[in-house]
């Protein structure tokens, strides 16, 4: 319903520090209590002097179009009446399309979020966090077309987000049932044990290692820990070794054995036939084994490859998303769902908190179905001569749609309210979970065919 901006004003909307004037900081305490009751976001209208000129141009074009069509209709071409009529109809259609395209641009808006108010309300220091759990879905199909290293960077940026770790779960959907994806995700889980504490200790941004180490900026800026340089060099070496291991897996996967892939225990990989295989679920990180090198808990990381059977149209992304919704409902059942493509990493560690400023707002949260994040693109020339950044779409059209109703869902970077998708509050009790048996490993053991793990449909949201 809303588009998130990336501004972090203070609680009053301005800059500067605020100090308590009472001897025991009573004024500061009252200030914090008042701030906790304020809205978590606000609409920032674009100044009229920036829009009026464009609006005047729209009106002038509309007037000129009216005169044009008055002339066209009043002066028919008698010698080619059919062609004249067709051309007039086409011109009216193009004019109507142009007019509909101008409506969203008439009243664009920006939005600001207040992360400090969110923390005061739901995440106070020294108290258990009341932020809602979020299940994050990453979709991938073919690891030879969607490089596993890019997917790994996306997953690492998710695992390192600035959010309570017990409330973050990352589900990776492998719709190609590729053993390469499974093994690269296993390597990613091991590297995350070192990368996540490094990011949180030194406030690294962005938290995708490939793009962090490629930055052409002064990485020592605002870093005051004397050990930072040494730890950064060590982490960069660790990442280079991680890349070597991933690239070795990719090279190995180039030639598929005639009998198909086999696992370490000698059994055949269940996904050798991507069109006919059982569902596979593997929990790489979680409460039972998700600790980093500092002994702190890591977010959950789950590999999912939905069941495929011949004769069913279940090879599209929408069906994979439905399968992830059902699996996550059994394992974690987060109140909110965020889906991203495998090549869309988080460029801000506070992205989830920004979404919660809308979803958990006491006034607007219950009316919000989803929050659509804008996309930003790397590797584009400085002048963007081919318009690959989609600036017009994300910074003009989407903000304009937000001003009249709400931006559309673009397929990635969208945080959904699970209740809005279900149509009711999806709260599961222990009795509801009893019929479901979680798989021991991705391919070992048998399980009951539970509806939560089955998906043969291809619905869209």
From TrEMBL:
Pathway where this protein functions: Glycan metabolism; plant cellulose biosynthesis
Annotated TM spans: 52-69, 81-100
Co-factor(s): Mn(2+); Zn(2+)
Subcellular location: Cell membrane
Annotated catalysed reactions: [(1->4)-beta-D-glucosyl](n) + UDP-alpha-D-glucose = [(1->4)-beta-D-glucosyl](n+1) + UDP + H(+)
EC numbers on record: 2.4.1.12
GO CC entries: plasma membrane
Principal localisation: membrane
GO biological process: cell wall organization; cellulose biosynthetic process; plant-type secondary cell wall biogenesis
Region Disordered, residue ranges: 1-26
Keyword set, alphabetical order: Cell membrane, Cell wall biogenesis/degradation, Cellulose biosynthesis, Coiled coil, Glycosyltransferase, Manganese, Membrane, Metal-binding, Transferase, Transmembrane, Transmembrane helix, Zinc, Zinc-finger
Binding-site positions, Mn(2+): 317, 341
Family annotation (PANTHER family): X-BOX TRANSCRIPTION FACTOR-RELATED (PTHR13301)
Family: Belongs to the glycosyltransferase 2 family. Plant cellulose synthase subfamily.
Protein name: cellulose synthase (UDP-forming)
